[in-house]
Amino acid sequence: MRRLLLLVLLGLVGCAAQPVSNSSPEARPVSSDIRAQVHTDLAGNYYLRAQYAVALQELAEALKADAGFAPAYNMLGLVHGELREDQRAEESFRRAIELSPQYSDAHNNFGLFLCQRKRMKEAQAHFETALANPLYASPEKALSNAGACSLEQGDVAAAEVYFLRATKRAPNHGSAQLGMAEVHYRQGRWLAARAMLRQLTEHAEVSPQVLWLGVRVERRLGDREAEANYGAQLRRRYPESMQTQWLITGQYDQMGSLL
Predict the structure, then answer these.
(1) CB 170 within 8 A of CB 144
(2) CA 137 to chain centre
(3) CA-CA distances (angstroms) from residue 241 to 34, 81, 244?
(4) Percent of the chain topping pLDDT 70
């Protein structure tokens, strides 16, 4: 349905570029904000497929249509962040927030960017700003990221609070469930960690982080068959991942990052 809507909107944009004939007096040009939104949505799709050059082209078109379109700057921040162009990424996130101070998605994404660069205090401030907006439609994202950032700092207690809030808001939110499983593991609650992982794998994509935690949990519980099953999946699905390398070399104390 989303792709169909994009195609319909793109069709409208194409029509707007054509001369308006006398036979269709009701035809009107598509507004600049709609064109900007269409190109930003397309950029988001290319971003998810790691086609960053095309995403940047779409974002250039979005800003050509509306130079003050905050979501385009938010997406620019994400793309430049993936390209490790940190200065451009930071400038883009700040511009999005300058244009729309209550833009919670931009605060959340900027917070994650900062946490990944070990700027923890700044990151948490942006997560909290995102969460302070009562109209934020998906606070579980910022809560999960704040929890992961707390784990990076070694603050397991704070992480647990964030992840619990996230799972209360969205019980099947995969990042929050993985975070809670990691918290259980670090606190020695192996059975609770196993239960959370099994719940997670019923509805979410199995990532290297999930499989690696599964290996470690089952190793603690002494279930060699379950441990071997997680390990086999990790080797087969993600042979180049660092988690697979840890498995091969027996580095079971490596916890990795949830970011």
Answers:
(1) no
(2) 15
(3) 40, 21, 5
(4) 88
pTM recorded for the entire structure: 0.85
Residue labelled with tokens 């993985």: 178
SS3 content of the chain, % helix, strand, coil (to 5): 75, 0, 25
* Phi-psi sector, 85: left (phi>0), alpha (psi -120 to 50), beta: beta
Q: Is 70 exceeded by the pLDDT of residue 252? A: yes
C-alpha closest to that of 31 among 50, 48, 16, 46: 16
Distance, CA of 126 to chain centre: 15
Report pLDDT for 205: 83
Tell me the pLDDT tens digit for each residue of 74-115: 999 999 999 999 999 999 999 999 999 999 999 999 999 999
CA distances to 18, 23, 131, 162 from 156, rounded to whole Å, are 59, 67, 20, 10
Encoded tokens for 36:
């900007």
- CA dihedral for 218, 220, 224, 228, sign (positive or negative): positive
The token duo for 16 is 């707007």
Cα 174 from Cα 206, distance rounded (Å): 10
Whether 131 contacts 238, CB under 8 Å: no
Query: 4 pLDDT exceeds 50?
Result: no
Residues in the chain: 259
Structure tokens at 193: 């960690």
Asked if residues 109 and 121 have their Cβ atoms less than 8 Å apart, the reply is no
Q: How far apart are CA 150 and CA 117, in angstroms?
A: 14
Mean pLDDT across 134-151: 97
Alpha-carbon span 113 to 119, nearest angstrom:
9
